[in-house]
Amino acid sequence: MRILVTGSSGHLGEGLVRTLRERDHEVVGLDLLDSPYTTHVGSICDPDFLRRHMRGIGRVIHAATLHKPHVATHPARAFVETNVTGTLSVLEAALESGVPGVVYSSTTSVFGSALRPAAEQPAAWIDEQVVSVPRNIYGVTKKAAEDLCELFYRSRGLPCVVLRTGRFFPEADDDPELRDRYDDLNLKVNELLYRRLDLADAVEAHVLAAERAPELGFRRYVVSATSPFEPEHLPRLRTDAPGVVRSLFPDSEEVYRRRGWRMLPGIDRVYVNRRAREELGFAPRIDFREALDRLRRGDDVSSPLARAVGSKGYHAQRFEEGPYPVERSR
Length: 330
Description:
Elements: E1 2-6, H1 11-22, E2 26-31, E3 40-41, H2 47-54, E4 59-62, H3 76-96, E5 102-107, E6 124-126, H4 137-156, E7 160-165, H5 176-181, H6 184-191, H7 199-216, E8 218-223, H8 234-239, H9 241-248, H10 252-259, E9 269-271, H11 274-280, H12 288-297, H13 304-309
């Protein structure tokens, strides 16, 4: 199949192009930045550029975006132009060219304030039924782009699958307190319990969605590593996450002790990928159980694909305060 990938020089984009090529698909990669995974350099906000390269395309995977790390460095207008106008241009070009299915790479950031329940409340159970309450321009524009996808399906019949992915970036956490208190890999393994997934699993979800898009029509999916937690764990997770984890993984204490690691004292949310598993056949390979087993064997926790893509960063410059500046909520 001939598949167009936007944002082909990014973390997800490169992972997609590598994987699709390995599976003998013909890939057309579009990005503002040139790379071995970008076949045409240009902007998704340029309708003529998109039309030229959309001909003969069997699926579109739209991964180009301004990310959360850009909130403190880019104006709101840039987010609207890239994430909303750019997505509109991709959808229009796909519709005009008769593409039978589009996958839109969204984010769990669209849930916004729903991810942070009040201190006295249980951890939030985050599935597709949760109402989005975006907290910044990134979340607002990603949710608006999702709604455009739904509109193009409802009004024009263009099948669109939206994937709200958890964290898969390899960069250090943006929170300086967490960076100071936890080893980076310790924090990332902790996050596999409730909010993170490996890049290879994120890529696989997008490939599965592309294959199924024409029959699915319009769907939204939460995409993350499979969490071991159930609804009955939610109250205790807020106050005693280590106790809950010990009850589910008695061997985790020894693995952590040997590395001098710690579990988070509390967890405020749980991403639920059940719908993606049931409807897409999504079966993430790296979860907390797999990570523990790899650590015990002395193996690398991340997938070969994640290691090959590596860290790209989000900015051309370095920042004294961390991997990228953060706009703090008021």
